């Protein structure tokens, strides 16, 4: 079975600019709200830099969107059925963290995202990325160390964690093989 992996740098750049302009924000205002420098936002909006998961987490949090919702908007996916081969994927250029939007982007209350975190990789997201959703993490393969604020959770295959109140979160794979997990989000 082949999987289509598209380069979303151009569409993502356009989507970020559209989201910012739809709110009437300047680049400086988005920088202040997200903690991302004006120079980096400008480079990303011009598709001169490929954004990392951390950067996209900060920007999506500032917009009040999940990372998967932002990527789905960039992909302009639609319909009630998304076949695996057509599900939008994005790979962090820094960590090789791969994120695939599983659920259809029809605007329903549930979002399902599959993530593969390579061995030795770590990705962090600010509390703002978790302030507007109900989250659960289900490990499908490997082991995941999830740090939620000051609390560290060691998760193995089949373990499911419900995230608590918004806090900075770090997803880390300290094992020798990749970790695959689902992120299940419900709009709250």
CATH topology: Jelly Rolls
> So, CATH architecture?
Sandwich
CATH C-level class is Mainly Beta
Gyration radius, rounded: 16 Å
Identify the overall geometry.
globular
The helix-and-strand class reads alpha+beta
**Mind describing the biggest β-sheet?**
6 strands, antiparallel
Order of helices and strands: HHHHHEEEEEEEEEE
Count of the domains: 1
- The helix fraction, in percent, is 25-40%
What oligomerization state is this entry in?
single chain
Distance between the ends: 36 Å
Catalogue the unreliable spans. 1-6
What name goes with the CATH superfamily?
Jelly Rolls
Describe this structure in words.
The structure is a single chain. The protein has 188 residues and is α+β, with helices and mostly antiparallel strands. It has a single domain, classed as Jelly Rolls (Sandwich), CATH 2.60.120. The chain is built from 5 helices and 10 strands; from the N terminus they run αααααββββββββββ. The strands form 2 sheets. A 6-stranded antiparallel sheet has the order 1-2-3-10-5-8, with helices on one face. Strands 4-9-6-7 form a 4-stranded antiparallel sheet.
Write the layout of secondary structure elements.
Blueprint: H1 9-22, H2 27-34, H3 38-45, H4 53-63, H5 67-75, E1 89-91, E2 98-101, E3 110-117, E4 122-125, E5 133-141, E6 143-148, E7 151-156, E8 160-162, E9 169-172, E10 179-187
Antiparallel strand pairs: 1-2, 2-3, 3-10, 4-9, 5-8, 5-10, 6-7, 6-9
Helix pairs in contact: 1-5
